[in-house]
Design goal:
homodimer, alpha+beta, Nucleotidyltransferase, domain 5, 6-stranded mixed β-sheet, globular, disordered N terminus, DNA-binding
Chain lengths: 400, 400
DNA sequence: AGATACTTGTTGTTTAAAACAACAAATACA
DNA sequence: TGTATTTGTTGTTTTAAACAACAAGTATCT
């Protein structure tokens, strides 16, 4: 099972589909805000008070949200009720890495209920990861509060995912090729499983809950040891492409360099802004982003500074291309790109503006991601939540 | 007046808005197809027969479309009625160039009713162009068939347009800077005026009526004497960015070249794939795309072939970056890029695939544009038509 | 040629859901 | 304490899509 494709174009709207749409709209609003006043729902949706009342009570009866009396009254007039997404609806988030797998339970309210990281031997096979994940999900399911219901499982994949059938096409760091991951994990867990590219999911998370909350046009660049990934939000929608492979922003070409000491495409952003090059110059084998950040902040080495500045220039070139293409409001950086940015923000910004059209770049803001280690946890959980939100009244939940 | 921004997110749907949506859906379907059977409308919208009947008759009463009996019956059963967009609703299309302005009247049916090109002294001022365009519109209005009603005016601008208020920010070839073009032309003509970037409009035209008809994810690259422009359709929507400046695909960086004989950004697609370089090598001062195409096809000069091949390689680099970013189904080329493609399609395709991710590039098709000289005519007319289609029952039309 | 199956348009009725209206509840402020 | 203000609640109205039954027209089969 995987995320649905966009609704077919030229579709008419019947009475029933309107109801579904409105239920979705209200539930989405509550999910995004965590808690929201009913009067606020009325205002933002433009629906009638009584209609909102009806919609909210239908969603309450479905057990998806709860109405409480407001504690702190808001002003003149009868106090409005607070509508909260329940903690009793959870999605599992599975985040495989090279040497570990993290599984979390995330509530519809946005709360990360539990989070467990299990170390594994390096480069596990896909079957291996599926076995570990399903075992962890089974264990964690039992530990959930009684009455909790499960929406499904979202998996962040460091590689290319075919969205139509949940197949991992190629995950270079893990060495997985053509794995029917979603089907297999769904088989093991009995739950619907949805896959997404890690950077795309990070992008979704930052756009909904983090640094680009409320922004309709944003570009994301996340970097880790495996390279640079990205995502794009255009007019509030993620740009996913014909088959779901869009957003490979690390592979944009910014130089004619023909370097050969690199397995990917020479001259691309990912080839010129490399975490490993930084580690090398600091003589580190492995390091967390925090450790690397500390080195970058404190270094006195001219050679290191030179490398950092070169990488900043390359990053700026990449961003200016993206700004020309997307004209975003915000560019969000994650991973060690944040450290580069904070090393010399003015250098990055001015170089970027020199390579970008004035009109497109004049209002762009570059900022760092806000979700930290919960980035992929929240991002992956959004996949099952999205499915639930798109069909609140007919979605079938599994008892924990 | 300009094109509206996307509808606010989190908007609920009332009964009336559903009706508007359904009227829009039907009218859009008819507009895109020119003529369509009522049974086909029923099938594609999923609405009930009787509902479609009602919607079509409301649109007929508004004078936007006509029902006729089918001439050639389609098969078993009662023949369905043919629904046709009327020729009595027209939009004006204004296409300013360096040395001429073209004004056309385009019917909702897609027919180009009239088209007139007026030569002007080189590099007219914006006021100049406004005066000429409004005079031509006034004259052509009188010549329209009696009973014809006018939707508005769409203008293709070779430069950056701020979509929120119809201001031309910068049109380098024309030398226009910060011109409130839409407001001024609207003042002169008494008609609503909408502006769009020329490449974006070409993109819309090819996506709706041309080489990417029915495709939901497509990338467009158009080249002329002024450089390379582009546009992107993602999940059926144009990517326009926060302020409407997105799609400057000519300005993506593909090389670290620091060449100085160029006014734009060195190392970008537009700097490396230049029409003028081709003209120079063929010792031409000016030439139509057809003339240039003939030269490219027939040349025996090794030097010329070398330049052409270099440009093909650069174009391929640009396309591979775009394929990695957007994962489109189709890449449409226009202007002299078509000639480059046809000179050595295999070279272009293989070089592109070498620079693009296998998953994203495996199903991409590169093809030439299909609309020829009507590209911008149809594209610009889509702006007013879109406004009409989005509000069929409340849009106020002007009598010719 | 005539009967039959099939598809579509038409008309009148039903239904679902949002809007509306009137009132009650709960707060702030004069 | 009284009044204005805002919001929730309840019962009624309205709108538009769905539904159902029938009529119209075409193709196919015998």
């Amino acid at each position: 099972m995987t995320a649905d494709k966009a609704a077919p174009a030229h579709k008419g709207q019947s009475g029933e589909s309107v109801r579904q749409h409105n239920l979705s709209t209200v539930l989405r609003l509550v999910h995004l805000q965590g808690t929201i006043l009913r009067s606020k729902i009325t205002a933002t949706t433009g629906l009638n008070r009584s209609t909102v009342s009806d919609l909210v009570s239908e969603l309450s009866e479905l057990g998806l949200l709860v109405e409480k009396e407001t504690v702190a009254p808001t002003g003149v007039g009868r106090p409005s009720l607070a509508v909260t997404a329940t903690d009793n609806i959870v999605a599992f988030s599975v985040n495989p890495e090279i040497d570990a797998t993290t599984v979390s339970a995330v509530a519809l309210s946005g709360r990360v209920v539990t989070k467990e990281r299990r170390l594994m031997r390096s480069h596990p096979t896909a079957d291996n990861a599926i076995a570990v994940a399903s075992e962890m999900i089974a264990k964690m399911s039992k530990e959930l509060e009684p009455g909790t219901r499960i929406v499904g499982v979202g998996v962040s994949v460091p590689g290319q995912v075919r969205s139509s059938d949940g197949v991992i096409r190629f995950a270079p760091q893990l060495g997985w090729v053509e794995s029917a991951f979603a089907a297999a994990l769904s088989q093991e867990t009995g739950l619907p499983v949805y896959l997404g590219n890690d950077a795309s999911l990070g992008c979704i998370a930052e756009a909904r809950f983090g640094a680009a909350k409320g922004i309709n046009d944003a570009v994301f660049l996340f970097a880790g040891s495996g390279g640079i990934g990205g995502g794009v939000i255009s007019e509030g929608r993620t740009v996913s492409g014909a088959a779901g492979y869009a957003g490979e922003l690390g592979h944009i070409r910014i130089s004619s360099s023909k370097q050969v000491d690199y397995s990917g495409f020479p001259g691309t952003l990912e080839a010129l802004v490399r975490r490993n090059d930084l580690l090398d110059i600091f003589k580190l084998y492995v390091a967390t982003d925090e450790e690397l950040d500390a080195e970058i902040r404190s270094t006195e080495s001219t050679k290191a500074k030179r490398l950092i500045e070169d990488q900043i220039d390359s990053l700026a070139d990449g961003i200016s291309t993206l700004v020309n293409i997307f004209n975003p409001e915000v560019v969000v950086l994650g991973g060690f790109l944040t450290s580069l940015f904070e090393f010399a923000p003015d250098q990055l910004i001015s170089k970027m503006k020199r390579g970008a059209l004035a009109a497109a770049s004049e209002r762009v803001v570059i900022r760092k991601g806000a979700l930290g280690s919960n980035l992929l946890v929240l991002g992956a959980a959004e996949l099952p939540f999205e499915a639930l939100i798109n069909a609140p009244s007919s979605f079938s939940l599994t008892d924990a």
